[in-house]
Design brief:
Rossmann fold; Helicase, Ruva Protein, domain 3; alpha/beta; 5-stranded parallel β-sheet; globular; DNA-binding; 3 domains; 11% strand
DNA sequence: TGTCCACTGGAAGGGAGGGCTT
DNA sequence: AAGCCCTCCCTTCCAGTGGACA
């Protein structure tokens, strides 16, 4: 039999297989379920804060705190939807609009204002080019045309700290004094409990009116969430008895992250499907758990800019050489030599120091500042993941490939 | 006790690349 | 085309520092 005819039926047989998933969407982060288990009191609190908007009053600004995957975003969106529905049903109520912005993506004053304007008018705003105050004005005009209350949700608001983000928060809280008809009130969502401390004091007082804290889910609660979603997502009888409790337990260990739990369940299903298994078992969950970890870092490394890749590569080389702990000076030396070897521009040590911190933030390595007394202060750097897989990914880059045979000069024996 | 190392990390600003306005 | 603006990535400059050593 020739090669082609061996596989002639491949698609039919794949299609014939019983599908595991009924509706995989139910396991994605973007999915909004009909119920939010274990978040009833948060929904009530939030609704209570926002209800003045329906009477034509301005609700106080609000901060929502909680670790990732504790349901902050989904609860806010849910309550806003209810609010809009209520307005639609009872036309004697004061009009309310809501806008949602993710500050991790939309992270400058200009972009936030442009995004908001887009949500409230037809006006086209270029992604760059205008002075910021012009964009501010167009947002002001867009919302002030009629009497209404605007609720702006700034998700991941802690990502704005430090940049001129303070300004945008300040400007938005102060906006009401410039508005004739409408009113703006803010909901800030933050992972970081201490976020307010980093803000300018004028902003602190206007923003920190009320707050709601979302506590992490425990394993029991995660189980409830997973069961609810699994019912929609999987064909009945596909999941082994212990699959959901295991997913819940693993995610509970990661500070009760529901997103993580859902990912885990979804990937477990995918792993089982690929293996042609009849059902999803505990083994699939454990494999999925490893796969998620690995995929995340590998993807992070793959999308690094060349300079960071080279830097990481030099750290790996030093680590493989073994011996004492690695410090910034050494890394910079090696990095410099490698740059020369592949004729890449060399960045300054200051910049490299920042890049090291970025790699630290990504969880690829661990760096801590240590003082060696007489011999100065430096960062001590350690890889957080095994260099073997890392190297393979890095060597996909054509420039780094040239360094496979790069030899460190003798040194580093002490 | 003071000195001094090898940096750290903040601040300011340059300039390239995107764009708009006149 | 000239004059602006915004953002990103970087450089330059520099004050600050924990602790070994003299």
């Amino acid at each position: 039999m020739d090669f082609k005819s061996t596989f002639s039926g491949i698609f039919e047989s794949l299609l014939d297989r019983e599908p595991m998933f009924k509706n995989k969407e139910a396991l994605r982060h973007s999915y909004t379920p009909a119920e939010l288990p274990h978040r009833e009191s948060e929904v009530e609190q939030l609704a209570a804060t926002l209800v003045p908007s329906l009477r034509g009053e301005t609700p106080s600004n609000l901060l929502i705190y909680g670790k990732s995957g504790t349901g902050k975003t989904i609860v806010s969106r849910f309550v806003c939807e209810l609010l809009r529905d209520t307005v639609k049903k009872r036309d004697y109520l004061y009009p309310v609009s809501t806008a949602y912005i993710n500050c991790e993506i939309t992270d400058t004053q200009y972009r936030i204002l442009a995004n908001l304007t887009k949500q409230f008018s037809e006006k086209k705003i270029p992604f760059t080019g205008w002075p910021t105050d012009k964009v501010y004005k167009s947002f002001l005009e867009a919302i002030d045309k009629e009497k209404q209350c605007i609720i702006v949700i700034l998700d991941e608001i802690d990502k704005l700290v430090g940049k001129q983000g303070d300004d945008i928060i300040y400007n938005l809280t102060r906006m009401n004094s410039e508005l004739e008809n409408s009113r703006v009130s803010l909901i800030g969502i933050s992972n970081d409990l201490k976020f307010v401390d980093y803000l300018d004091s004028r902003v602190q007082s206007s923003l920190g009116g009320e707050e709601i804290v979302f506590t992490p889910y425990n394993a029991r609660q995660l189980e409830d969430i997973l069961r609810q979603r699994a019912e929609i997502a999987f064909e009945p009888g596909i999941l082994d008895e212990y699959v959901i409790p295991l997913c819940a337990a693993l995610a509970a260990r990661e500070h009760g992250d529901a997103r993580r739990a859902l990912d885990l369940l979804r990937v477990s299903g995918e792993v089982a499907e690929r293996e042609n298994a009849e059902r999803v078992t505990e083994t699939h969950v454990r494999n999925a758990n490893e796969k998620i970890e690995k995929d995340n870092t590998i993807e992070a490394v793959r999308t690094l800019p060349t300079q960071s890749k080279l830097l990481l590569y030099s750290i790996i080389q030093l680590e493989e050489k073994g011996g004492k702990a690695i410090n910034t000076g050494e890394v910079y030396d090696t990095y410099k030599r490698m740059c020369k070897a592949v004729s890449l521009d060399t960045l300054t040590q200051r910049r490299v120091s920042d890049l090291i911190s970025e790699l630290d933030m990504l969880g690829i390595l661990n760096s801590r500042v240590v003082s060696k007394g007489r011999y100065g202060r430096t960062k001590e750097i350690k890889l957080d993941i095994s260099p073997v897989g890392l190297k393979t990914v890095l060597e996909e880059d054509t420039r780094i490939k040239k360094l496979v045979d790069f030899n460190l000069p003798q040194q580093r024996l002490a």
